[in-house]
Design a protein that fits this description.
The complex is a heterodimer of chains A (60) and B (463). With 60 residues, chain A is mainly α. Chain A has a domain of 32 residues. Helices cover 65% and strands 0% of the residues of chain A. Chain A is elongated, with a radius of gyration of 23 Å. Chain B has 463 residues and is mostly helical. Chain B has one domain: Amino acid/polyamine transporter I (Up-down Bundle), CATH 1.20.1740.10. Helices cover 68% and strands 0% of the residues of chain B. In chain B, helix 1 crosses helix 13, helix 5 runs antiparallel to helix 15 and helix 10 crosses helix 12. Chain B is globular and about 70 Å long. Chain B starts with 20 loop residues before the first helix and ends in a 20-residue tail after the last helix. In chain B, 59% of the residues are buried. Classes of the chains: A mainly alpha (60), B mainly alpha (463). Chains A and B meet through helix 1, helix 2 and helix 3 of A and helix 6 and helix 14 of B.
């Protein structure tokens, strides 16, 4: 088996390991965490986001 | 008895705000820079070297308008989804759905094309080392899998990697520029002999506009990071405008070097023109540098595309425009992990078709449809919320001239695309029309209409 044949097998193997890792991890997260929590994000994220302050409110 | 699942305890989950303007620059320039290493030169094939330069600057103007408009709106609508979220707040659900779809398709297709390029580069490298017919598929899959894995595990490491490899790829263009002794014409560069008149006249210039988009396609992706960047109102405009300036310099350098070394007939159909330029200089170090830089540029582009496509898909799902399942955030890595994972088989499938030009055309046209939307979006945004009514992190000058210029240049580029890829243009339009019908008839009923408008803005003027 030549150098490039080994490289091809390494590429397939690494790809498989990473893909399987992601799939397994996503199943584990689903089994450990409440679905409502995982999908509770709000648009704009956390409170320090620049959301466009309503100037009239800001001036009050 | 089954153990109880971990729940929120009342506090919603959110993506991490860890990025700075340099990451934004890396995201925008990283997606685009591969276009300076390959693809831009098809403008030369369409209309000659001068047409390529005109396309470089005219399309540069188009993207400068895009960057300015995007910076203003994103500095106000600072949320993942970028232009999709803007469309949702400013125009309406159907436009938002379409824009979201343009974004997902444009970035997923571009990611597939980048992975194809990495595979082809590996094949070329193997050939140089004496191994012919290397199978490119494992390297295509490895590229997508590795970058998806990186994106899955966190945005900071993902875009820090982009920052490093994008900077190195840009640096290689600067090194190449100085290697050709740019101040002494005739020593290395032969512009006087190689630059000819427009071989196909002005229609060739118009035709070259479509491929001129390769110089800049993807810079608008910076706003997808709005929800993960610290001080979005400052960072997004800084990163985007800085990225646009970098690309204008890189595009001009690229044109200058390549057209001074190769005749337009060859350059117009070359696969890797910058690598060819380094080969012509006879330096093996430069050759190796350009080979690595081309690979870095393709990887950075694919990386940014996965980041942006997943954020767009995630935003569509969070608003129930797509199945809400994809609107989840990883509790440890704080990334839209299901969206990242979902797009992997789609990107790989497109890449396995091997139809690089068709894949890229779909990506370019999806991008162009998005830019067309921006013009109407900007006009309506300023009309509904005039200056002073809401806080803007950045205000772009000379409104409405940039919006009108953008629309005019978009129309010219549609015409250019029609000249070269008329069937593709019409089939892509048909695809989006069918998708719109599906959304109206089958999907919109799941959307929570009352939750659509999240910005704490005053009532729009005239409503």
């Amino acid at each position: 088996m030549g150098f490039w044949d080994i490289i091809v097998y390494v590429a397939w193997s690494l790809s498989a390991v990473m893909l399987v890792w992601m799939v397994v991890d996503s199943f584990m997260i689903s089994s450990q965490y409440d679905e409502e929590y995982l999908m509770s994000s709000r648009e704009g994220g956390e409170d320090d986001v620049v959301h466009g302050v309503h100037l009239e409110e800001g001036n009050q | 008895m089954a153990s109880e699942k971990i729940s929120s305890g009342g506090k919603p989950i959110a993506m991490l705000k860890v990025l700075n303007p340099f990451h934004i620059w890396a995201l925008g320039v990283g997606i685009v820079l591969v276009g300076e290493f390959m693809g831009w030169n098809f403008t030369v094939g369409k209309g000659g070297a001068y047409a390529s330069l005109i396309a470089c600057w005219v399309i540069g103007l188009l993207y400068t308008c895009v960057a300015m408009i995007d910076s203003e709106v994103t500095s106000t609508v600072a949320a993942a989804g970028g232009q999709y979220t803007q469309a949702k707040h400013i125009i309406g659900p159907l436009m938002a759905f379409n824009v979201g779809l343009y974004l997902v398709m444009a970035y997923t297709m571009l990611c597939a094309a980048d992975a194809l390029v990495v595979g082809d580069l590996m094949k070329s490298g193997a050939e140089v080392m004496g191994y012919a017919n290397l199978d490119t598929k494992p390297f295509v899959v490895l590229t997508v899998a590795f970058l998806a894995w990186l994106n899955y595990r966190g945005v900071f490491a993902t875009l820090t990697l982009n920052l490093v490899i994008t900077f190195l790829a840009f640096l290689s263009l600067i090194v190449l520029f100085f290697a050709v002794d740019p101040l002494n014409q005739g020593v290395v560069l032969q512009h006087q002999g190689l630059l000819t008149d427009l071989p196909y006249g002005w229609i060739g210039v118009i035709a070259s506009l479509q491929f001129g988009m390769w110089y800049y396609l993807g810079i608008e992706g910076t706003c997808q990071a709005a929800e993960e960047v610290r001080s979005a109102g400052r960072s997004i405009p800084l990163g985007t405008m800085g990225g646009m300036m970098t690309l204008l310099v890189a595009a001009t350098i690229t044109w200058f070097v390549a057209t001074g070394l190769m005749p337009w007939q060859y350059l117009g159909q070359a696969v890797t023109p910058m690598y060819d330029a380094a080969t012509l200089l006879g330096s093996s170090q430069l050759q190796l540098m350009l080979f690595v830089a081309t690979a870095f540029a393709a990887i950075a582009s694919a990386n940014g595309c996965i980041n942006d496509a997943s954020r767009a898909w995630f935003s569509l799902a969070r608003d129930r425009y797509m199945p809400v399942f994809f609107g989840a955030i990883h509790p440890k890595y704080r990334t839209p992990y299901r969206s990242v994972l979902f797009l992997v088989p789609i990107a790989v499938s497109f890449a396995f078709t091997g139809l690089l030009d068709q894949v890229i055309t779909f990506s370019i046209l999806s991008g162009l449809l998005g830019y067309t939307f921006m013009t109407f979006n900007m006009i309506k945004f300023r009309k509904m919320w005039p200056l002073g009514s809401i806080h803007r992190g950045y205000i772009h000058p000379f409104h409405p001239i940039p919006a009108i210029t953008l629309l005019t240049l978009c129309c010219a580029t549609y015409f250019a695309t029609f000249l070269g890829y008329g069937a593709s243009l019409l089939s892509i339009m048909a695809f989006y029309i069918l998708a719109s019908i599906w959304f109206v008839v089958r999907r919109y009923k799941y959307v929570k209409r009352a939750d659509q408008f999240t910005m704490p803005w005053p009532r729009p003027k005239g409503y």
